Sequence to fold (155 residues):
Amino acid sequence: MTLNVGDKAPDFELVDTELKMRTLQEFRGKKVVLAFFVAASSPVCEKEMCTFRDSWDELSNMNAQVIGISNDGPFANKAFAAEHKLTFPVLGDYTSKTIRDYDILMPDLLHVKGYNAAKRSVFIVDEEGTVTYRWVSDSPLKEPNYNEITSHLQK
Fold:
């Protein structure tokens, strides 16, 4: 089932880079930018996550919290986050449950059978847990429109 604007965002419990379980619920009261990325250390994902890192102050001033999510495990995500000095949580959905809940599973990435990943996607969830913005790309090489995301958060 496709998750659309106006729907309640599915909660999750995902592991962070310090092996702590994190939930969407714990960020209630803030606007949450869920940035699903394809794979830690891939070039487009590096650019995307670093763009969010570089706009951290601006987004924080809008009461927004960025959360990066991939199907990588916590150790790959930890190395990725440390290398790029990411200032927001990077969570691992290594079972792809949350990726499936958000209906953004990309099966057989790069034609590798069984290698599933998240489609590059951004969901903005409001302070009450409702999806207010949705962008999903079928191309792992396409980045989101960062200005559009910022404009949406300013509303």
